[in-house]
Amino acid sequence: MLDAFLSWTMVETGIRFATPILLAALGGYLCQRAGVFNIGLEGTMLSGAFAAVAASFATHSWALGILGGVLGGVFAAAIFALFVVSLRTDEIVTGLTVNILAVGMTTYLLRAVFGVQGRFASDQIVMVPPLGLPLDWIPGIGSFLSSTSILVYLALVAAIVINVYMRYLPGGVRLQAVGEAPAALAASGLPIARTKWLAILVSGGLCGLAGTYLTIGELGQYVDNVTAGRGYIAIAAFVFGGRGVGGVVLAAFLFGLVDSLAIRTQGLGLPSNLAFTLPYIAAIAAITVVGARSRRVSRA
Amino acid sequence: MSEVAAGHLAGEPAKVTRTRSLARIAKEQAANIGWIAAALLAALLVGAIAIRIQGIDPLSAYGAMATRAFGGWRAVGNTLKAATPLLLTGLGTAVVFRAGFINVGQEGQLYIGALVAAIIASADLGTPGWLQILIAMAAATVAGAAWAAWPVFLRVRFNANEIVTTLMSSYVAILAISWLVNGPLRPAGVAVGSTAPIRPAAHLPFVPGTPIGSGILIAVAAAIIFAVVFNRTPLGYEWKILGHNAHTARYAGLRPARLWLLAALASGGVCALAGAIEVLGVQFRFVEGLSPGLAYVGILVALIARFSPAGIVLVAILFGAINAGAIGLEMASGVPAQISSVIQGLMILFVAAQVGLRSLIGRGPRGSH
Predict the structure, then answer these.
(1) What is the CA radius of gyration of chain A?
(2) Are the beta carbons of A103 and B341 separated by less than 8 Å?
(3) Which of residues 258-277 of A touch B (CB under 8 A)?
């Protein structure tokens, strides 16, 4: 029974599930470093998911589909940034609103534009192809690596780029300063609002990619509320991941593995709906661990 | 962070004085209603553009909407029926947000109440119908309250961010319930996930002589109770202090754990009651997908009303009218009824924008930032 859990398939499924969580979590991580707690990741992702399908369907091009998904995420993030940064509204309220508004807008547009309810499938929707790296020779996971979506690799590249940016480039250092010492920064004349805007827009693009992966990377169709709380799990992932990008990647992969485990347990007879509560329970556990850790630190 | 958020959310908590004159209160309320009306107009205007794009005359479309929402007793009954869960979940948002505990698990709480009510009201208890209704609602309330309690424990004991735990709690509750109604609880020969139908005697009655369900009366009664607790009891006052500033509250000797727990119990109970009324008065059984995010709209209602029970009653009826009217809009013009959620979402954005604009101008509650 144990080897059913510890198979390569499980790792592969884990990576696939982790990809959208990682992309969105990277976005949330950037915002958090810039001093903005973005709980609008879920709605931003949904917006991207819808836009990706619409763009892919309209242009018959997966590349333009990706672009559409990114722009859809950036659009939702721009609303968030406009209110939170420029109009200084409460970030929690605004984030929740973005999530609720995204559900409303996408269900409305699904009917208004495509005339369907619940889901939109069509053979005109072009899916993102695999990258096709010649890695078949690697034992175990090789065939997965060569056949998996471009977007999986894009998520890894995004993580590496963000890591380099945050550690070594002046922009990244400035971004963290905005989050950690805004008063000092304001005194030094650095553009706080612009930095926050930038972080939120980039997070929008990343959430857009996450949504893109769900629809034209995996499903090949749009389903109402397709994100199903993954944006919230992404919050748990970047909070759990801590202060470095590496931690975020690891946390996202762990949540992906739990998802994959949920699928597995189904095969072992656990009812699917019960199994699908696992990732959410894992997120609750992760947030609790983080909270307990932070309390111990603040007491010390 | 959540204390800060709640402080911003709670409107103008700094101006808590026992000697606020009635005239002052009336003036503030009038100003709030003015802002809400302005936001509604702005949202309807954007909605009109969306309708126009579909080649339909917005004025006649909105006319059809208004007729469906208010044209006659039956329409009013439908509007109030749609308003009831929004009102109750709005109250369930106000009580926790006022206390600075950002519980956003209202949807899961509603589902639990709906399921428990359906199980009890479909069973043969050998009691009169009215008693069965009361037992079903009481049990639902208790179950919802119990479910809302554990995130308080995680927050107080382990400092776990309640926004994430409560959001997650809804997914856990809804998935687990989905398993129950597709498995152990599903009656034989039924295709959709559901419980058995409730007994006809346990249907929530109409207000005598009208097509108005009595659920709205229960909801308004709940709003009055919440208003009294918020404004006339030490508990309401302590919630307000805690929500405004947790540190001040601790110095004042208030115990956040106790106050948050009470707020969460009230929130879980009243949201579960919303679910119970949906089952006893509208659906007459628990069906999977019973609520298309009703409680999330209830959160919006509470935010727009700035957590005032009277405001929540008004905004819930307005949102109920938009939801009920949207069906008329779709039948008359073919504009998808989902435009209602676009209008509602835009409204909260415009309300938020006003708060932001006012604080930028320097008159609002958020002086320093």
Answers:
(1) 19
(2) yes
(3) 271-274, 276-277
